[in-house]
Amino acid sequence: MTAETEKKGASRRAFLKGAVAAGGAVAGAGMARAAEPDPLITEVQEWASGLGEGVDATPYGMPIRFEDDVIRRNVEWLTADTISSINFTPIHALDGTITPQGCAFERHHSGAIELKKEDYRLMINGLVDKPMIFTYADLERFPRENHVYFCECAANTGMEWAGAQLNGAQFTHGMIHNMEYSGVSLRTLLTEAGMETTGDLSDKWVYVEGADASSNGRSIPMDKALDDVLVAFKANGEALRKEHGYPVRLVVPGWEGNMWVKWLRRIEVMDGPVESREETSKYTDTLADGTSRKWTWVMDAKSVVTSPSPQSPITHGAGPLVITGLAWSGHGKITRVDVSTDGGMNWQQARLATEGQNKALTRFYLEIDWDGSEMLLQSRAHDETGYVQPTKDALREVRGENSIYHNNCIQTWWVKENGEAENVEVS
Amino acid sequence: AADAKRLGLGREALPEEIAAWNVDVRPDGSGLPEGSGSVMDGEELFVDYCAVCHGDFAEGVDNWPKLAGGDGTLADRDPVKTVGSYWPYLSTVWDYVHRSMPFGGAQTLSADETYAIVAYILYSNYLVDEDFVLSKDNFLEVEMPNADGFIVDDRPETEYGRFSEEACMENCKDSVEITMHATVLDVTPDEGAEAEAGAAMEEANAD
């Protein structure tokens, strides 16, 4: 902060403190004493006397109505229509790491299709011993695996390349969800079709496509396909949601969400990439000199403070404050997250709620005693490869401003003295 | 992949089934069916099936994708990325149009119709003359202007070293200035962040 804003901040702080002392409304420090007994305690409330709903009222429940703002949101101007479009996970209001499926973001290219299990077919063809057709029932008979992974759209934070644009973590960082998947490894299915006659696997690819009109075909090198790619049919314990690929989707750990093909219908083993629309026109990253990177598959280490944030302001005044957020890396585990309250001048290590999980969201916390002065909040993720999340300027220095995808820059929230927060860029 | 044994699940795919679903076309032209189509036929088809979104000259309507134009703009502040200015392979145009267009009526174009529409898109990008006929045989003769415009992901060389240096923890810079505000642009949906934050603030202030 400059000396000028420092001074201004200081005088505002003094003003606020004076106001608090005069009004006596909020506890600045120490415990407040209630002036009068709280009727929510002294009077018998309806819920403590009458009856609640029976167990037959809600066979499958929705969140309580008071949480009706914790929903996916759409930004109309981003796309030409809502069919080939995106919406955003309300990460500003969530905690822990598992994303509730009902508010986990969607990205479709020709809408969320309805495909029932009985109509589902998966084809494996190309350079395999025997081209195969599997039904959904067949898939359930293969040995199963369970893993938690994040799915982050390649375009997450993409609107922020040229500056601070959307005001809220949901909009700047909400093209992401994190679920526990149950399914069959792609390796198992490829083995069933047989690759004895395929030849050298190191230069082979699989092409994967969905059953929807867009097809979303993508090429994946064979070493990834045989490593940790899953053909999943359950997420967070239950069937995939329609909008997330029911009944079967591909899970491609650590790699850009576009490759997580939904309504998966075909896997072709090939001796080269298809160079489909989704890996030429789209999901290629244009650099400042006009050339473009292709096959930028991995999502690099990234983090964001989810609260406080523009949609999650501080409403409790000065004193104890929980700063929390999410960190993740497509290269493996998060090992550390640093948090700055002064725009990156000084940093302290946050507390990871659990040890970093491989290619999955990790929750971090930093508990501070907020003195009510303005803050420039940032978080900085480190992953097990030693990679440290860069600033936006550092990224722009390499790439320019037009790469659209893969913006994993450090985010800044300007938290004002009144607790409001705003998406800003800082020097 | 020989490390696991087969379980004997599923069944062999029939040739007709593979033919129905395996329609991808690759940069070397493999996967292209027999057929051909002219710019003239393509123009008519384009007007009927495509122009409502993409414009009569493939220039795009409203926010719908522009398919033509933008040559030489890739290094500009606001690049215009079209089939002519950006796409590296003609195979992708054929494959994508045939499989996924028109939007809302995909997989309704015959092979000849697809050749014709692709020929018209090339013409709209000034890449062929108006009497051009595209076919399986001359497909690879068409030169795409940005064919050499792509490099394989080079982050391991250009970024991972520089972003793996030890992180500064204290006194990392002399001063910090806010250089940009999202609220200046004010493009966040009203029913979203601002309304919410606003409501929360009102509540807080009322306390």
Summarize the structure in words.
Chain A: GO terms for molecular function: heme binding; molybdenum ion binding; molybdopterin cofactor binding; sulfite oxidase activity. Chain A: This is TMAO/DMSO reductase. Chain A: InterPro entries: Ig_E-set, MoCF_OxRdtse_dimer, Mopterin_OxRdtase_euk, OxRdtase_Mopterin-bd_dom, OxRdtase_Mopterin-bd_sf, Sulfite_DH_SoxC, TAT_signal. Chain A: Pfam families: Mo-co_dimer, Oxidored_molyb. Chain A: Keywords: Metal-binding, Molybdenum, Oxidoreductase. Chain A has 427 residues and is of the alpha+beta class. Chain A folds into two domains: 187 residues, Oxidoreductase, molybdopterin-binding domain (Sulfite Oxidase, Chain A, domain 2, Alpha-Beta Complex); 123 residues, Immunoglobulin-like, CATH 2.60.40. Helix content of chain A is 13%, strand content 29%. Chain A contains seven helices and 24 strands. Chain A has a five-stranded mixed sheet. In chain A, strands 6, 7, 10, 11 and 12 form a five-stranded antiparallel sheet that branches. The longest helix of chain A has 21 residues. Chain A starts with a helix and ends with a strand. The N terminus of chain A is likely disordered. With 207 residues, chain B is mostly helical. Helix content of chain B is 35%, strand content 7%. Chain B is built from eight helices and five strands. Chain B has a two-stranded antiparallel ribbon with strand order 2-3. The termini of chain B are far apart. At the A-B interface, β1, β4, β5, α5 and β13 of A face β1, α1, α4, β4 and β5 of B. β5 of chain A pairs antiparallel with β1 of chain B.
